[in-house]
């Protein structure tokens, strides 16, 4: 595996995009999917006595949503936290660890389903969002009441079920071992920080707060901690890693996770919907606090360009923006050098994150995987 060393990205040019995929272990995403499939197969029968409609409408759709997959980024980082912490790559212990880290995907299903409800997103991963599916089922079944309200309400329940079953999957994976106690703290923190980050995102939108400190705080809680830092800590704790290894992984994870979110912000304006599976400009339409917009507004003020500042402020939170409008905003942000500033910040975070690995007591296999994952996080297409 080719390592991406600090300084390997030329600061004078934009970050190159790389194809989607898992550079850490090409078979890991498939292994996670098998673990999830096994869990749903076992639980599907257990849910049936409750009510066949619940099994058919909520469980089946949650299963399809989860297995349809995504980047499996959280189990991937958790797995390499396990390996960096000294956990083996094969054998019964590794199999249990793989099942445990796969449970993180159910937390992610909860987060995505409910995030789509809060944002009113029409699609997810190139398919109708789950609340839209339920609304359409309501319409096609000629049911009473509001299809939109029904769809959103049932989607919230599906998200709640995913969060509850994440705990169940973790318990099943670690039953009869002392590892459940080891991972209790990062598991609890991860769930709480995911919800706190979502709240701060909503609160910032309500306050029309697109300041740089707020944007970075939301990125830190909503993505960096929940998606990278805590999964790494979870995997390392599962392996019984020492405090020095855990600290190095968390510091690396905070930097790389923040860079991951900043790449997401760029993809939200400049990405290809065919690759990302979602429309461009949704963050702008919803008034989300992103570093890209915050820097753009600051640069407009510094440049003494009230017209540019007014254009950006008028776009933020405007649900009627067309794709052409979004592209015009993107061009304006380029003119203000906001995109290049975000990319420079990503490069600095990448270098800082990789520096935390340099002196850590990790095996070469884990170090190389984490190095490749860091590079992928800041140069991905989706």
From TrEMBL:
Keywords, comma-separated and alphabetical: Isoprene biosynthesis, Magnesium, Metal-binding, Transferase
Record has Transmembrane helix as a keyword: no
Domain of life: Bacteria
UniProt-listed GO biological process terms: isoprenoid biosynthetic process
Keyword check for Magnesium: yes
GO terms for MF: metal ion binding; prenyltransferase activity
Protein's recorded name: Geranylgeranyl diphosphate synthase type I
Organism: Murinocardiopsis flavida
């Amino acid at each position: 595996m080719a390592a991406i060393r600090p300084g390997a990205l030329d600061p004078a040019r934009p970050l190159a995009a790389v194809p989607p995929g898992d550079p850490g272990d090409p078979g890991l995403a498939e292994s996670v999917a098998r673990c999830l499939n096994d869990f749903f197969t076992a639980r599907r029968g257990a849910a049936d006595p409750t009510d066949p409609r619940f099994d058919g409408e909520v469980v089946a759709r949650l299963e399809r949503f989860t297995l349809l997959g995504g980047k499996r980024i959280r189990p991937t980082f958790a797995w390499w936290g396990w390996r960096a912490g000294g956990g083996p790559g094969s054998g019964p212990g590794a199999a249990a660890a793989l099942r445990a880290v796969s449970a993180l995907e159910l937390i992610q299903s909860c987060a995505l389903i409910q995030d789509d409800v809060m944002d009113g997103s029409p699609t997810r991963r190139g398919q109708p969002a789950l609340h839209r599916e339920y609304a359409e089922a309501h319409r096609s079944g000629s049911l009473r009441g509001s299809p939109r309200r029904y769809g959103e309400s049932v989607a919230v329940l599906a998200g709640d079920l995913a969060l509850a079953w994440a705990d169940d999957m973790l318990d099943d994976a670690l039953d009869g071992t002392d590892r459940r106690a080891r991972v209790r703290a990062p598991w609890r923190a991860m769930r709480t920080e995911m919800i706190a980050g979502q709240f701060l995102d909503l609160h910032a939108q309500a306050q029309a707060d697109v300041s740089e400190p707020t944007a970075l705080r939301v990125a830190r809680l909503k993505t960096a901690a929940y998606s990278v830092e805590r999964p790494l800590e979870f995997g390392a704790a599962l392996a019984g890693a020492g405090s020095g290894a855990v600290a190095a992984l968390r510091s690396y994870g905070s930097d790389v996770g923040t860079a991951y979110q900043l790449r997401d912000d760029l993809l939200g304006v400049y990405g290809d919907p065919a690759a990302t599976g979602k429309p461009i400009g949704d963050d702008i339409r919803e008034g989300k606090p992103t570093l890209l917009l915050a820097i753009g507004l600051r640069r407009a003020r510094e440049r003494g360009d009230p017209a540019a500042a007014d254009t950006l402020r008028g776009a933020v939170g405007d649900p009627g923006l067309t794709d052409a409008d979004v592209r015009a905003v993107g061009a304006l942000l380029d003119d203000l050098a906001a995109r290049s500033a975000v990319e420079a910040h990503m490069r600095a975070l990448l270098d800082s994150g990789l520096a935390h690995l340099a002196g850590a007591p990790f095996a070469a296999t884990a170090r190389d995987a984490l190095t490749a994952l860091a590079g992928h996080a800041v140069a991905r297409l989706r």
